Structure formats: structure tokens, C-alpha cells
Amino acid sequence: MNTVLKAAAAYIIVLFVIRLIGRRTASQQAPIDMVVLFLFGGLSVSAVLGDDRSFVGAMSALFTVGLMHVAVSWLKLRFVWFERIVDGTPIVVFRDGRWNETAMRRLRMQQADIRTAARQEKLDDLDKVAVAVVERDGTVSILEKE
């Protein structure tokens, strides 16, 4: 039972820390971001299993994390406020030629990240961009001016 409680706690803590780190890790995965994610996994396994190297302990942790994921998914469907806490909301970072510097700092994004997203949409000049939105998953959506 100790493993189950540790696995449940680890799920909640890792979810919280990933939300705290921000969207950039989820979407762009620069090498440094991948290092953080791999370390989270390794450290979580060590914390959950401790000295228990048994098959039953590992499977208990695995099922607990799976059930926690199902529970969080269900709560997100049931409660909009919970979904916003877990997944966040889209954030406008550029509109009509003006940067939302406060949002950019909070997201720890640079103008170069938005310019890259614009180029990926075949827009070489921000004068052609109406709006840039950082989506809940960290991707940047670019809406072209008409």
C-alpha cells in the first residue's frame, strides 16, 4: 500500500512541477527540456519504489499511475476549472503588431520562438501576422492577416 500512495503522490507532484515549468517543455523539447523530463522519470521511479525492486511493487506503481491518469482525465471532463488548472488556457502573445511582454515573460518564451512559428507557416514577416497564440499544449498558432 505504501507504493500505491507514493505513486499517487508522485503523479500529482510531477503534474504540478510540469505545469510550473511551463508549456515550452511540452511542445518544443530543446535538449535541456528533454533532460529535465528524463530526470523527472528517473527520480520519480526511485522515490516511488525506494528499495522495493519487486515485480508486484513495480506493477502496483504502474497501475496507480494509470488510474491517476484516468481519474485526472475524468475530472477534466467533469469540471472546467480543473481542466484549466491541469492544462491551462490559450494565451495571446502577439496581436496587431504588439507583443504581450507580460505573457511572454510568464511563459518564458522569446520573440524568436514566435518568429520561428511564423516562418513555419510560411510567413517571413510579422507584419503578415494578425495573432500569435500559445496553445494549451505549448504549440504556437499563427493567424495570418486577411
TrEMBL record:
Residues 78-146 form the YetF C-terminal domain. InterPro entries: DUF421, UPF0702_alpha/beta_dom_sf, YetF_N. It is a multi-pass membrane protein. It is found in: Cell membrane. The chain crosses the membrane at residues 6-22, 34-50, 56-75. Its main location: membrane. Keywords: Cell membrane, Membrane, Transmembrane, Transmembrane helix. It comes from the Bacteria. Residues 2-74 form the YetF-like N-terminal transmembrane domain. Belongs to the UPF0702 family. This is DUF421 domain-containing protein. It comes from Methylobacterium ajmalii. The lineage of its organism: Bacteria, Pseudomonadati, Pseudomonadota, Alphaproteobacteria, Hyphomicrobiales.
